[in-house]
Amino acid sequence: MHRLEDIHFRDPYILALPSRKKYYLYGSIGQNVWSGPAIGFDAYESEDLVHWHGPIPCFRPPADFWSDHHYWAPEVYEWEGRYYMFASFKAEGIPRVTGVLVADQPEGPFTLWSRSLTPPDWECLDGTLYVDDHGDPWMIFCKEWVQVEDGEMYAVRLTPDLKGPIGQPVLLFRASEASWSIGSGEQHNRYVTDGPFLYRMQNNELVMMWSTTGQDGYTLGLARSISGKPQGPWKQDDSPLFTKNGGHGMLFRTFEGQLCLTIHAPNDHPNERPVIFPIQEKDGQLKLLDDDSK
């Protein structure tokens, strides 16, 4: 058994399954997140969010798999009786994409379902699934700063089987639109978009958590959809949610009903680890409990 501080993951994602009374943790395997051939993806399972069993090798690429490195940010969703993993993949000379894997069980084994949901000539990452009020699936994803400098956030509607996009992606915002996003590079014109996650607030507002580089390192903040739809338009909150060099967050509820945030922190390799914070939602705001990051 492991505790979170023992698990070297970036980009943590937790799937809570009430039917099994278990939580499943996925993430980018930290040991070779930046270099070397990718191992694949691992999962851990827990009944209490403290003690974790694993690693469970939920995906190992077959010999003929097209991508060989930068296996990042796996997110797993239960959809029509199966489990779908959205994740980023890269190969030399081929732009980074968000692809989809599928399995009959949350612990895998996962196999390829859709090679790419993102445009073939775009450098993209961190696709996240959102199901709108009509039951239609959407993917929110990032077009990377490495291609556009001012990182962009997009939404695209998906086919019901999650195999492909419907229509063209819609630009939602650029990273520099957030006052807490700090440009890097010699001309301070490189802005990061990273790790989107959508959440319907108790007051029915649709918000998006996303991460960028801030004054004190990796930073997590919120944008709000004025229309209440994934297409936006989106307005950035004035103040970020987490500022002390941690991010790529997602929200989930415990089996007792407590809203929680998981991120990786710090954002320094090889020290990054999954962290869980209880969250208070009040008056249209989210507040981290037991946190001294601000």
TrEMBL record:
UniProt site positions, description: Important for catalytic activity, responsible for pKa modulation of the active site Glu and correct orientation of both the proton donor and substrate: D126
Hydrolase in keyword set: yes
Protein's UniProt keywords contain Transmembrane helix: no
Gene3D superfamilies listed in its UniProt record: Glycosyl hydrolase domain, family 43
GO molecular function, one term: hydrolase activity, hydrolyzing O-glycosyl compounds
Pathway connected to this protein: Glycan metabolism; L-arabinan degradation
Any one GO BP annotation for this protein: carbohydrate metabolic process
The entry's keywords: Glycosidase, Hydrolase
SUPFAM superfamilies associated with the record: Arabinanase/levansucrase/invertase
Similarity comment text for this entry: Belongs to the glycosyl hydrolase 43 family.
Protein name (Swiss-Prot/TrEMBL): Family 43 glycosylhydrolase
Origin species: Paenibacillus xylanilyticus
